[in-house]
């Protein structure tokens, strides 16, 4: 009997490993929506670091959340159901409708990426974050057009405790991680209220492409990306392309006649590429590799010029 158990366990290992990465990722969405917690979250990228206090509570299906910046200028984000407010950004308190924009947590988008073209998941060992045992899962890009991710998922609840953005060499170029967290502990009502006392209300989301057909489009874009939103500017347009996780914004506006040239820059994980040609400036920006924003910028064309 003991030998039979050993043989069964030996066979179960490879079979379990083949499905466990996806199973761990599938736990993230329910955990983000149902677990009460509060703690300290640190964001590090491009040589800078920000620290936030996070409060999350669910009462009878009503999900509320508040993030408060502990470093830099005073800022906070408050979410109540499908509405979210940003305070302290230098403008009046602004509310957003999350029914179109999705949740604030990038971890949820990463967990869903393996169901889309361009990503694959695998187990990457175990670790500890903020004193909690965690399963590590790598979500790798299947091509060079997007970054990969590494997630540390709390073993009991399925809550993501750390998310790293990885470059082509699997090096961390950006990370968000809890330094302390209290799981299963509901924050107080006072911790969830906005400091401004302003009520939350939804605003109109960016128009969908079928509502405002653009005069410009990107041809030959990387597989998996599609046009998600269009915003018309006073003299140009912004096109938002995404694969559901990675996204690139392409701006086109008039430029001085005869101006030609190009430029590129990088801010942490964000790459920027600009071209000036034929009286237009084209700028592509996104948290994607440099080759990706270059491809989007180079392949922007006027719709009427395509026939």
Distance between the termini: 74 Å
Give Rg in angstroms: 22 Å
CATH topology of the largest domain: outer membrane lipoprotein receptor (LolB), chain A
Average pLDDT number: 82
Low-confidence stretches: 1-18, 93-104
How many discrete structural domains?
Answer: 2
Question: Can you describe what's shown?
Answer:
By secondary structure, this protein is α+β, with helices and mostly antiparallel strands. It has two domains: 18-192, Lipoprotein localisation LolA/LolB/LppX (outer membrane lipoprotein receptor (LolB), chain A), CATH 2.50.20; 216-302, Phosphorylase Kinase, domain 1. It contains six helices and 19 strands. An eleven-stranded antiparallel sheet has the order 6-5-4-3-2-1-11-10-9-8-7. It has a six-stranded antiparallel sheet with strand order 13-14-15-18-17-16, with helices on one face. A hairpin with a 2-residue loop joins strand 4 (76-80) and strand 5. It is globular and about 60 Å long. The chain starts with a helix and ends in a 5-residue tail after the last strand.
């Amino acid at each position: 009997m003991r030998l039979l158990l050993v043989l069964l366990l030996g066979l179960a290992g490879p079979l379990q490993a083949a499905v466990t990465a996806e199973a761990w990722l599938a736990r993230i969405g329910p955990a983000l929506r149902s677990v009460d917690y509060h703690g300290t979250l640190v964001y590090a990228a491009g040589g800078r670091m920000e620290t936030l206090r996070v409060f999350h509570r669910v009462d009878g299906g009503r999900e509320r959340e508040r993030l408060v910046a502990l470093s830099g200028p005073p800022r906070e984000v408050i979410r109540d159901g499908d509405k979210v407010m940003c305070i302290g950004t230098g403008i009046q308190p602004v509310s957003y409708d999350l029914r179109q924009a999705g949740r604030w947590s990038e971890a949820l988008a990463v967990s869903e990426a393996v169901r889309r073209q361009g990503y694959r998941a695998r187990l990457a060992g175990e670790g500890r974050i903020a004193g909690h045992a965690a399963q590590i899962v790598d979500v790798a890009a299947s091509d060079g057009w997007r970054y990969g991710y590494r997630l540390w998922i709390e073993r009991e609840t399925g809550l993501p405790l750390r998310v790293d953005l990885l470059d082509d060499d699997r090096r961390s170029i950006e990370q968000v991680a809890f330094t302390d967290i209290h799981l299963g502990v509901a924050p107080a009502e006072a911790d969830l209220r906005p400091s401004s006392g302003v009520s939350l209300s939804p605003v109109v989301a960016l128009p969908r492409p079928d509502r405002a057909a653009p005069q410009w489009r990107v041809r030959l874009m990387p597989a998996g990306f599609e046009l998600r939103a269009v915003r018309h500017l006073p003299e140009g347009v912004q096109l938002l392309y995404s694969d559901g996780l990675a996204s690139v914004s392409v701006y086109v506006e008039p430029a001085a006649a005869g101006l030609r040239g190009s430029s590129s820059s990088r801010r942490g994980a964000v790459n920027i590429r600009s071209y000036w040609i034929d009286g237009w400036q084209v700028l592509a920006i996104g948290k994607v590799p440099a080759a990706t924003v270059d491809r989007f910028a180079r392949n922007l064309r006027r719709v009427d010029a395509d026939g």
